[in-house]
Specification:
The complex is a heterodimer. By secondary structure, chain A is mainly α. Chain A has two domains: 31-78, no CATH class; 98-317, MetI-like (MetI-like fold), CATH 1.10.3720. Chain A has 14 helices and no strands. In chain A, helix 10 packs antiparallel against helix 13. Chain A is globular. Chain B has helices at residues 3-12, 14-31, 33-36, 68-104, 106-121, 124-135, 139-148, 152-165, 169-176, 181-217, 229-238, 244-272. At the A-B interface, helix 1, helix 6, helix 7, helix 11 and helix 12 of A face helix 5, helix 6, helix 10, helix 11 and helix 12 of B.
Chain lengths: 324, 278
C-alpha cells in the first residue's frame, strides 16, 4: 500500500512542474502589465517610479529568471505580495478564504453523493420504469442548465418573492447578536442556495454515471449466481451489486474536483460569498498578478490532491488496483 | 456504415430530430435578425425603462429601455458564433495532437498525454478567467480562450481511435505503397476517426455556449452594448428585485439552445453506433 502511495506521489511531480510552468506562462504572455494600469490611473507617476515598481516585482528580469525566483519562493509557500493597495501576502489572502470555499464544495459533494447514488441505483434497478424515464429527463435538463441562471431564478423565488432565504453573503448584519444556535442557523440559511446550486451541476452527470455502473454490474455472472442460490432481491442488489458499482464512483468524485472549484467563481460572485472564487474574480478584474497566479496554482494543486485521495481510496477499496 | 442507415436511425430518434429543429430555428433567427427583430437592439428609450412584458415589448425592456426580445434575437448570433468558432479551435488542436499521439506513440504520445493531464488539472474556468482578464474581454478573445482550454477531451478520443486504427490492414497497405506519414494520418486514418469527433464537437458547441454566457454574465465576456444572452442576465441580476423578465427569458434561451445541441450530439452518436447507446 505504502509503495502504491509513493508511486502515485512520484507520478505527481512532473504534473506539478507542468502546472507551475503553465500558470506562469498564462499570466506573463498576456499583455497589459500591472505597472501600466497603475500609471494609467495616476498620470503623475514618473518613469522612475515605474522602473522602481518593475524592479520590485522582478518584472525587469528575463522571464526564465522570474520563473525560477517565483518557483523558489513557491517552495516556501511565499506567493509574493498582492498588487492591490493593501499589499498583503498572497498566501494569507488565499488561506483566509480557502476554508469557506472548501466547506461549500465538500458539502455539495456530500449532497451529490446522497442524492445521486440512490437515483442512479433506483433507475438502473427499475430500468425503463416511469421513475427511470422521469429522472432521465431531469438529467438531460440538468446537463443543459446554466446554473448561474438557476441561481438567479432561485434568488428571485426564495429570496425576493417568498423572502425565506438571504441572497448575499454568509451571515446577516445582526450576526453578532444572535445566540449560538441562531448563528448556526443564520449561516446555514446563507449557505443553502450556494451549496444546492453547486451540487446541481454535478448531480446530473453523477446519477447518470451511477446508473450506467449499476446496469453493468447487474449483468455480471456473480449476480446471476447470487440470484440462483436463492438470495432475496434486496440482498442481491444492495449487498452484492451496489458495492461493486460504487467503486468507480470514487474516481469520478476525484475528477469532479476541478469543476466544483471552477464553479465556485460563479457562485461566490453571485452570492457575494467571501471565498477563494470571489477573490479570484476580483483579482482578475483588477489584474492582481500575484493573487491570480497563486489561486491558479492552488486550484490546480487542489485538483491533484483530490485525484490522489481518489486514487488511494480506490486502492484501499479495491485490492486489484494495488497489484497492477 | 451506410449513409442511408444513419439517416434512417437518426430520423426515427424523436429527441434528435427535436434538437435539430431547435438548432435550425436558432440559425434562422440569427440570420434573419435584422428583419425579424421588432426594434433596434441598441435603441435606448428612457421613457420605458424596465417596463414589464407588454404588447409593444413582448419580453419587456431593460434598464435603458431597450427591447429585450430584439436584444435576445441579436444575442443568438453571439452564442452561435462563439459556440462554433471556439469548438472549431478545440477540434483543430485536439485532432492534430490526438492524431500525433495515437499514430506515433512512444515519446510523442507520452509528451502529449502528460500535457493533457497537466491541462486537466486546472479548473478550466480559472484558466479562462485568468487569461480573459489580461487580454481585455472581447468576443474574439473569448472564442480563442474557450477553444484553447477545451481540446483535451477531443485529443483523448482521437488518440484512442488512432491507436486501434494504426495497425489495421488498410494502413499497412498504404504504408506498403510508400504513402507518407502525413498522407496516412490525414487521408487514410483521420476520416475513420471523424465520427467520434463529430459527436464531441456537437456537445462541445453546447459547452462553449454555456461558458460564454457565464463569462458574459460575470461581465468578462461579451461587453455591452453588444447584446448577448449572458450580459442581459447581468442586467437581470442588477435589477433582480424589480425585473424578473430580464432574468427569465435569456436563461431560457440558453437552456433550450444547449439542450438542442446536446440532443443532436447524442442523437448522432446513437445513430452512428447504436451499441454505444447509454
Amino acid at each position: 500500500m505504502l509503495q502504491y502511495i509513493i508511486k502515485r506521489l512520484i507520478f505527481m511531480v512532473p504534473l506539478l512542474v507542468g502546472i507551475t510552468i503553465i500558470s506562469f506562462i498564462v499570466i506573463h504572455l498576456a499583455p497589459g502589465s500591472p505597472t501600466d494600469l497603475q500609471t494609467e490611473l495616476n498620470p503623475r507617476v514618473s518613469a522612475e517610479v515605474k522602473a522602481r515598481m518593475r524592479a520590485m516585482y522582478d518584472l525587469d528580469k528575463p522571464l526564465h529568471q522570474q520563473y525560477f525566483v517565483w518557483l523558489g519562493k513557491l517552495a516556501t509557500l511565499d506567493l509574493g505580495n498582492s498588487f492591490s493597495p493593501d499589499r498583503r501576502p498572497v498566501i494569507n489572502k488565499i488561506l483566509e478564504r480557502l476554508p469557506i470555499t472548501i466547506a461549500i464544495n465538500v458539502l455539495s459533494m456530500i449532497l451529490i453523493i446522497i442524492v445521486a447514488i440512490p437515483i442512479g441505483v433506483l433507475s438502473a434497478v427499475n430500468q425503463d420504469s416511469p421513475f427511470d424515464k422521469i429522472t432521465g429527463v431531469f438529467v438531460f435538463i440538468g446537463f443543459a442548465m446554466p446554473t448561474f441562471w438557476l441561481a438567479l431564478l432561485l434568488m428571485i423565488f426564495f429570496g425576493i418573492h417568498l423572502d425565506w432565504l438571504p441572497i448575499s453573503g454568509i451571515r446577516s448584519l445582526n450576526y453578532e447578536y444572535l445566540s449560538t444556535w441562531g448563528a448556526y442557523i443564520d449561516v446555514a440559511k446563507h449557505l443553502l442556495l450556494p451549496v444546492l446550486l453547486s451540487a446541481f451541476g454535478g448531480l446530473a452527470g453523477f446519477s447518470r454515471y451511477m446508473r450506467a455502473n449499476m446496469l453493468e454490474v447487474i449483468r455480471q455472472d456473480y449476480i446471476t449466481t447470487a440470484r440462483a442460490k436463492g438470495l432475496s432481491e434486496r440482498v442481491v442488489i444492495y449487498k452484492h451489486a451496489l458495492r461493486n458499482a460504487l467503486l468507480p464512483v470514487i474516481t469520478i468524485l476525484g475528477l469532479s474536483v476541478p469543476g466544483l472549484i471552477g464553479g465556485s467563481v460563479i457562485f461566490e460572485t453571485i452570492f457575494a460569498i467571501p471565498g477563494m472564487g470571489q477573490l479570484f474574480y476580483m483579482s482578475a478584474m483588477s489584474r492582481d498578478y500575484p493573487v491570480i497566479m497563486g489561486i491558479l496554482f492552488i486550484g490546480a494543486v487542489l485538483t491533484l490532491i483530490g485525484n490522489l485521495i481518489a486514487d488511494v481510496s480506490y486502492a484501499v477499496a479495491d485490492p486489484r488496483i494495488r497489484v497492477s | 456504415m451506410m449513409k442511408s442507415e444513419f439517416w434512417y436511425r437518426f430520423l426515427r430518434n424523436k429527441l434528435a430530430v427535436a434538437g435539430s429543429v431547435v438548432i435550425i430555428i436558432l440559425f434562422a433567427v440569427s440570420l434573419l435578425a435584422p428583419w425579424i427583430s421588432p426594434y433596434d437592439p441598441g435603441e435606448i428609450n428612457l421613457k420605458l425603462v424596465l417596463s414589464p412584458p407588454s404588447k409593444s415589448h413582448l419580453l419587456g425592456t431593460d434598464q435603458l429601455g431597450r427591447d429585450v426580445l430584439s436584444r435576445m434575437i441579436w444575442g443568438s448570433r453571439i452564442s452561435l458564433k462563439v459556440g462554433f468558432v471556439a469548438t472549431g479551435i478545440a477540434i483543430f488542436i485536439g485532432t492534430i495532437l490526438g492524431a500525433l499521439a495515437g499514430y506515433y506513440g512512444r515519446w510523442a504520445d507520452g509528451f502529449i498525454m502528460r500535457f493533457v493531464d497537466i491541462m486537466l488539472c486546472f479548473p478550466s474556468f480559472f484558466l479562462i478567467l485568468a487569461v480573459i482578464a489580461f487580454l481585455e474581454p472581447s468576443i474574439w478573445n473569448i472564442m480563442i480562450v474557450i477553444g484553447l482550454t477545451g481540446w483535451m477531451g477531443i485529443t483523448r478520443l482521437v488518440r484512442a481511435d488512432f491507436i486501434t486504427l494504426r495497425e489495421r490492414e488498410f494502413v499497412q497497405a498504404a504504408r506498403a505503397i510508400g504513402a507518407s506519414d502525413f498522407r496516412i494520418i490525414f487521408i487514410h486514418v483521420l476520416p475513420n476517426a471523424m465520427a467520434s469527433v463529430l459527436v464531441a464537437a456537437t456537445l462541445g458547441v453546447a459547452g462553449a455556449i454555456l461558458t460564454e454566457s457565464a463569462l458574459s454574465f460575470l461581465g468578462i465576456g461579451v461587453q455591452p452594448p453588444t447584446p448577448s444572452w449572458g450580459n442581459i442576465l447581468t442586467a437581470g441580476k442588477d435589477n433582480i428585485d424589480i425585473a424578473w423578465w430580464l432574468s427569465l427569458y435569456p436563461g431560457l434561451a440558453i437552456l433550450i439552445t444547449v439542450l438542442g445541441f446536446n440532443l443532436l450530439g447524442e442523437g448522432i452518436r446513437d445513430s452512428l453506433d447504436p451499441r454505444l447507446r447509454a
